[in-house]
Predict the 3D structure of the following.
Amino acid sequence: MGVGDVEITSTVTTVNDALYDVNGDGAFDSEDPAWVRANFRSIDTELENPNIVKGNYVVDGAVDEADAVFLESILEKVGPSGIAGDVNSDGVLDCQDSYGALSFFDSQIGQTGYVYALDMNRDGFVDQSDKSAFFILVNQCDFNQDGSVDDGDFVIFTAAYNILDCADPLMPAYCPADLNLDGVVDDADFAIFYVRYNAVTC
Ligand SMILES: [Ca+2]
Ligand SMILES: [Ca+2]
Ligand SMILES: [Ca+2]
Ligand SMILES: [Ca+2]
């Protein structure tokens, strides 16, 4: 196995909380359409409350039911504010978020397997682009789920490396050792594993 220089970078797009956080509490959640419903009124040109002005999402001269419904449609699509990738909702991004996460990929909003924390770009689909972004943020190399990436995981990685092809029936489900997501476990994956192995935190 050769070790190359690996730079782990990605771009994560999340919902624009500032745009949809109409009640101004710093998060976009179900309280925002509720706030709209509690503040129905015509937009007065003299009105200075910026949140009322912002709440007129469906531009029609009034903050009304159409705006609340609009916010709910966005909320249904993207989910409430949260830390992208924090699958176990403990406020921390670490390897524990990766445990079992692969089984949630290839799902879409409305399906039981859809996990909005994994929908990194909040487009309603948990797919390859989200997997790449998730893997950048989370150390997914704790294959044996014991809280550290060490020799025990190396043994598991090596076994997958020797099988090579993710389509091989001998490969563990969802091919966790295919770290660059190209369908095979080879030197390119080892280079990523090497970085993860040397990471101080899991
Ligand atoms: Ca977490
Ligand atoms: Ca997505
Ligand atoms: Ca481990
Ligand atoms: Ca690979």
